[in-house]
Amino acid sequence: MHGRPRRPAKPVDEEAASAKAAKLRDLQVQVLQNHHSRTYTKEAIGLSFKLLEINPEAYTAWNYRKLAFQHNVKELSDPEAIRSVVDDELRVVEVALRQNPKSYGAWYHRKWLLNQKLTPVDSKREFGLLDKLLKVDARNFHGWNYRRFLARFMGVPDEEELKYTMDKIGDNFSNYSAWHNRSILLSNLLIQQSKGFESKQKIFSEEFELVTQALFTDPSDQSGWFYHLWLLAQISTPDKPQLIASWPCNGAKLSSSFIKEKVDQNTLSSIWCHSLKERTVPIVLYFNEPVKGLNQSSVKLKSYLEFGKDIHWRALSMTDSGYSNCWTTYLQIANECSTSQQYSVEVSIPCSEDIVSRSGSNYDSPVHFTFTIELISDSQDIDLFDKPVAWNCSESLQSYGNCEPIPFDLLKITSALIEEESNWHFERLSEQIDLFRELPDDNSKFVKLTLARLLLACAAMKSCGRSLIERKRYCDEALGHLSDLIHLDPSHKQYYEDERSSVLMDKLTCDMETFMKHCSVQVQPNSVPLNHVQLHGLSLTCVGFAERLMWVQVLDLSHNSVRSVEGLEALQQLVSLNISNNQISSFTALEPLTKIMFLKVLDLSFNEIGAHPIDTTRYICSSPFSHKIEACEAFEQCQKKNINVEEYWDAILFFKSLKLKQLDIEGNAIASKENFRTLVMELIPSLKWFNGECVN
Amino acid sequence: MAEAAAHDYPTIEPTSFDVVICGTGLPESVLAAACGAAGKTVLHVDPNPSYGSLYSSVPLPSLPSFLSPEPSRVPLPPSGGDDSHTVVDLHRRNIFSEVEISGAAPEPSARIAVDLVGPRVLYCRDEAVDLLLRSGGSHHVEFKSVEGGSSLLYWEGRLYPVPDSRQAIFKNDATLNLTEKNFLFNLFKLVRAHIAAADEDGEGEASDKISEEDLDLPFVEYLEKHQLSPKMIAGVLYAIAMADYDQDTDCSEKLLTAREGIQTIALYSSSIGRFANAQGAFMYPMYGHGELPQAFCRCAAVKGALYVLRMPVSALLMDEERKNCLGARLASGQDILCQQLILDPSYKVPILDASSDGSDSNLLRKVARGICIISKSVKQDSAILLIVFPPKSLEEQQIAAIRVLQLSSNLAVCPPGMFIVYLSTPCADTSTGKQCIKKAIDALFAPQASDPLEGHLEETSENNEDLKPTVIWSCVYVQEITEGTSSSLLSCPTPDEHLDYRSILDSSKKVLHCILHFL
């Protein structure tokens, strides 16, 4: 059934195929005609059967049959007659499935028919059909899907279905569907706390044991590894969503202005917050997994300051259907307030039914933090952009004074896993690591990848104090495996590189001592000191652990291999960003930057924008450009200037949403194209410096 | 022409054939079918009233007379006939010895069919199976699968399953640890890749081929390199690669080379899944192995071969120099001329015996066989199963593996509620061979109840699952092995010590080449 090579059609086959096609066309026309004229006679229905017998994918014919069925069954009152009509329909589906066991339309028709609940369902017949089908192809996911439907429909207990998956795995463990169904059933049973499924630890230990048998028998079979990955996720992530970082962090002092005198002191008592000048306070919340449901009632604010009635929380990193790790809101200070006074803002997230993770778990680790705001109506307006910002590496590393940057503990939250439980998790992980180190198949990419993932899961559990040294050790070993994988499995090179980047960033930022080597407070002449992080020349391909960088105001990522800036949207304080000399290949890849409200300086020079005719990031980016109305305006505006909108649509959308003061984009293929400069000038009226020249 | 004395023998017309074959054992029957298919005229006779000769399945009551036949009757006086031939009398010999039967045959004993070739099975991917399919013999015989993955290894007093497929390796939790699981499946994969690479039309890659150098190494050395447990090595060597002799010795002659081991493993693993309704690698013919020669005889008959049962050959007709065989004189006294005469191994071949060319070692080969009837399966819930006792697993003197096959009533070889168990081991001398078979019987079964009344007592304790099955009836004997000979007078091989028909077919193929060469 699987893994058979396709053979080219012989001329004889082609002849037969064209004859079949002619017959099909003829049938199709007749069925459609009957459909339009609502002819539901026996002959007409028989015709649709003939069509479906040859081509079960003709979904209009299925729909026609549904209508005909409803029409005809209405007139029947005798239960026997109804039964025979239903039986006929079921048989049609069976015939269609014989032609193509993977026909969506046919399976759906059967489900629809059962859902009509006109006759009692003959469970023997249904399960018999499934058994036959799964015997022919145990991996037919339609069959598994229907089985789940049927089990729910008939009220078959999950325990029995779980046994069935075991039978199928026993027949042939190379069965994605059976493993998958197992994961679903186990999740259900564990949530319901069914008998024998009270202890997660016991169940998962057994499952690890089972899947390891399969993995060791044939490490080259993928299906077991998938199940292992699911198990790993079950024991390495907390069940409930947690808040892991926030900006401002607890105890932070935000100031709208910078008080020079205090720089000489050892700590930065207040953080200059650009937005405060506009009486706006940003709050960013970062969760360990994508959640949704943040609103005025699920996140409570308490302050003397008034923020207006509508506090709107917005997801920063958009994943599917509104779930996001990172949420932000911009509070507008509505009331009059004294300039010399500090106002505290208390943020608390109680246990909440509103905030839910994708798996449906509620938020139940209450958090509370406070920060203060100081509004100084500053007479001397600092203009940051008198001169172009220079990215001189050697200079910028020098800290101004002796200041430590922003308090490191972003938010004091201990892992929600209960201590002893987390010990159990850690033991399971270590056990698995030891096992796979023993697996002699050294060149299996699955072994290496799983080892890397296990090591990283262990690393993530070592989050404080002395265990950070262990964390780094785990990271180092994982890095070794990922580097091997890049050579071993070149077709997935980019994935491994991204993983490696993320681990590298973890290693660099997980403890104060290492991180400090990359942090400084940068003072441009005639400017406020800005928190600066420098991560250049590290071969990073993407940004990881953005929650640890949320306080960063100046970020230098130059001379890496960055392809995507996803994650940077969490850095709402970012004022200037240097991603020169990287591998950014399109403006779509930069889309996350459009969500950073106060980004003023952007260095994109020497990337690959415009060098690739096909923009692959459009398909990879989780949230491609989507502002429709604004887009139209921008397009019109550009068209007036004779700019080719079709060619520059992504550039237009990108620049339209930025309020930059300084932009460097030389060394990209697109920068030398005609009209590009006009486009930039047109779309960013605030721009002062373009490629090092003053333009305003 | 017809002799008055042989009133119960039919007269055969015509009197001249391309090939005359005497004996309807498997090799003879295959040759008859092959010659028939090649368009030769064939006369196929057998002294016995039924088909199969040394390869037949006989009803239990007639087994003793089969194993120790009365001395063959003096051949009829040669008829005057033609003087152009030299007549050489033929004598038959008994290849069975040391027959020892104990216990009363359970009733209905006539419904128990006993194989003379047991224990024996066919690989699903066996040449014998291909032969059946190609010749059309498969229409006349039906097979049942030996339960997959349940070959058992006797090790330190216990029976362990030997996993033989990917699924069996996955499910096994008694014999293998994780690393061994990994190794074993890798071995199967390696073999598959090697075979695919060796097959020139295949899609295999040349780099997957195992080097010639490695192929000539003893297989056991290859296994020992991987730090496997001795139990695991024994399992691979004796239950999967089917080594017969102790691989732990320095006697390199009997060591299985990697090439041989790999060939058998390839055959084994390609057998699994060949037929949708066969779970394992092996299958067994319904009604016993005697069905196989019959199937080929039918193929031959369809092609025009003439069959006469109860017709011994009493003498050879040779040319004057006693070099070439010109025909055979039948027990009826009728002389049949032929270009080739093929005899079954129960005939002494006078000329060949005289000019034996270094085949003395062949004459020494023997196999000790055992047949037991029990009322309970060795392993619960299993009907048909294979067991192997690796060399030295029972005693120091055990030089070769003992193979055991249990059959149940669903093969129609015995009434329900009974199981037939076959044992065999190659041996150099009769007494140690028999000794080994008896030891194996003792290891597997409880001794038979001396008093038939004790049967009652036994039933009460039968709830105990650990209780070994009791032997109701048993028979132990030793059989000589001779290989086929190929000269002007051809003789077919006796059943050998192996579990399958591969070497028997190989030697039959040689005989066939001779026939077709001479004709």
From TrEMBL, chain A:
SUPFAM superfamilies: L domain-like (SSF52058), Protein prenylyltransferase (SSF48439)
PROSITE patterns for the chain: LRR (PS51450), PFTA (PS51147)
A Pfam match: LRR_6
InterPro entries assigned to the protein according to its UniProt record, in alphabetical order: Leu-rich_rpt (IPR001611), Leu-rich_rpt_4 (IPR025875), LRR_dom_sf (IPR032675), Prenyl_trans_a (IPR002088)
Broad EC category: transferase
Alphabetized UniProt keyword annotations: Leucine-rich repeat, Prenyltransferase, Repeat, Transferase
Family: Belongs to the protein prenyltransferase subunit alpha family.
Protein name as it appears in the record: Geranylgeranyl transferase type-2 subunit alpha
UniProt lineage: Eukaryota, Viridiplantae, Streptophyta, Embryophyta, Tracheophyta
Automatic annotation (TrEMBL), chain B:
UniProt cross-references to InterPro entries, sorted A to Z: FAD/NAD-bd_sf, GDP_dissociation_inhibitor, Rab_escort
Subcellular location: Cytoplasm
Keyword Glycoprotein set for record: no
SUPFAM superfamilies, A to Z: FAD-linked reductases, C-terminal domain, FAD/NAD(P)-binding domain
Keywords from the UniProt entry: Cytoplasm, GTPase activation
Main location as per UniProt: cytoplasm
Cited function: Substrate-binding subunit of the Rab geranylgeranyltransferase (GGTase) complex. Binds unprenylated Rab proteins.
Protein name in UniProt: Rab escort protein 1
Protein's organism: Digitaria exilis
